[in-house]
Design brief:
Chain B: It catalyses: N(2)-formyl-N(1)-(5-phospho-beta-D-ribosyl)glycinamide + L-glutamine + ATP + H2O = 2-formamido-N(1)-(5-O-phospho-beta-D-ribosyl)acetamidine + L-glutamate + ADP + phosphate + H(+); L-glutamine + H2O = L-glutamate + NH4(+). Chain B: Pathway: Purine metabolism; IMP biosynthesis via de novo pathway; 5-amino-1-(5-phospho-D-ribosyl)imidazole from N(2)-formyl-N(1)-(5-phospho-D-ribosyl)glycinamide: step 1/2. The complex is a heterodimer. Chain A is an alpha+beta fold. In chain A, 28% of the residues lie in helices and 29% in strands. The longest helix of chain A is centred in the last third of the chain and has 15 residues. The radius of gyration of chain A is 17 Å and the shape is elongated. Chain B is of the alpha/beta class. Chain B is 22% helix and 25% strand. In chain B, the strands form two sheets. A nine-stranded mixed beta sheet of chain B has the order 2-1-3-4-11-10-9-6-7. In chain B, strands 5-8 form a two-stranded antiparallel ribbon. The longest helix of chain B is centred in the last third of the chain and has 13 residues. Chains A and B meet through helix 1 of A and loops of B.
Chain lengths: 87, 226
């Protein structure tokens, strides 16, 4: 089994009021030196079978049509190595 | 004979009964549609009502957009079936790409519930013909994901083609681009807006006016005279 991670972020030109609210809270909590925060979504897809080119293409379609709204969001698809359980 | 107007109920829809009531008050016959229906029961028009379909999970409207009932709805809307999306219904129509742009969280992050002044910009759509262009109306607004956004080219197209159907007046309550409260598709049969006309159809409740009723009388006249 392999894991594919889809990260979805608002496009740079889209205002992110939630990220701004987090950023504004930081000085109050004693965290200095952080000039900007953007909030996004991370999807972890556990894929049955091999993650070959065809599987990745299908996940790309899924991300484009469902997980992200490409009017306002960008997304990336990547395969994550899952460490084998140590016996 | 009167017009039959469908109202879709998704899991999490809230305003289906109010919408049915508004349709009845206008003189048309409301027809309940279920999100799992695979056909539209031969209705003459459809309203997607407000609420929080599927808990607004993923994005508002994103999951409802793939409900079985949406398949015939999208197909028939493209062929001219009149469809009105109110609030969550508007969000579903943008997710289904029947209307351009999308909704973001309100720029101030608060849920709003207030009477909102609007200007009717386009009185030639299937759902706005009983208004006059430039008319100012008051109807309730209640949402947290109400900030309408679209890229500049889309906004320019909407403005130049007169497809901004409603604009917020006096105050922009959520940061929407160009004060846009509602838009129409190119043919004018599909209209979506964030404020709730179905809550302003009787003097007793809502804004104390009946400024929302013309949505439903507009479509009735169009269908009966067709």
């Amino acid at each position: 089994m392999a894991r594919v991670v889809v990260d979805v972020m608002l496009k740079p030109e889209i205002l992110d009021p939630q990220g701004q609210a987090v950023q504004r809270a930081l000085p109050r909590l004693g965290f200095d030196g952080i000039s900007d925060v953007r909030q996004g979504k991370r999807f972890e897809l556990e894929v049955d079978g091999p993650v070959d080119e065809a599987a990745l293409a299908r996940i790309h379609d899924l991300a484009e049509s469902f997980l992200a709204n490409t009017v306002i969001e960008d997304f990336t698809v990547r395969v994550e190595e899952v460490a084998e359980a140590v016996k | 004979m009167t017009a039959r107007i469908g109202v879709v109920t998704f899991p999490g829809s809230l305003d289906d009964r109010d919408t049915q009531r508004a349709i009845r008050l206008a003189g048309a016959e409301p027809v309940a549609l279920w999100h799992k229906d695979k056909d539209l029961k031969q209705v003459d028009a459809v309203v997607l009502c407000g609420g929080f379909s599927y808990g607004d999970y993923l994005r508002a409207g994103a999951i409802a957009r793939f409900s079985p009932v949406m398949e015939p709805l999208i197909e028939q809307a493209k062929a001219g079936l009149p469809v009105l999306g109110i609030c969550n219904g508007f969000q579903i129509l943008t997710e289904a790409h029947l209307l351009p742009g999308t909704m973001l969280r309100n720029n101030h992050l608060h849920f709003i519930c207030r009477d909102q002044k609007l200007r009717v910009e386009n009185a030639e759509t299937a759902w706005t013909s009983d208004y006059t262009a430039g008319q100012e109306i008051h109807i309730p607004l209640k949402n947290i994901d109400g900030q309408y956004v679209a890229d500049q080219r889309t906004l320019d197209t909407l403005e130049s083609e007169g497809r901004v159907a409603f604009r917020y007046l006096d105050v922009n309550p959520n940061g929407s681009n160009n004060d846009i409260a509602g838009v129409a598709n190119e043919a004018g049969n599909v209209v979506g807006l964030m404020p709730h006309p179905e809550h302003a159809v009787e003097p007793l409740v809502g804004t104390g006016r009946t400024d929302g009723l013309p949505f439903f009388t507009s479509i009735l006249k169009k269908l009966v005279n067709a």
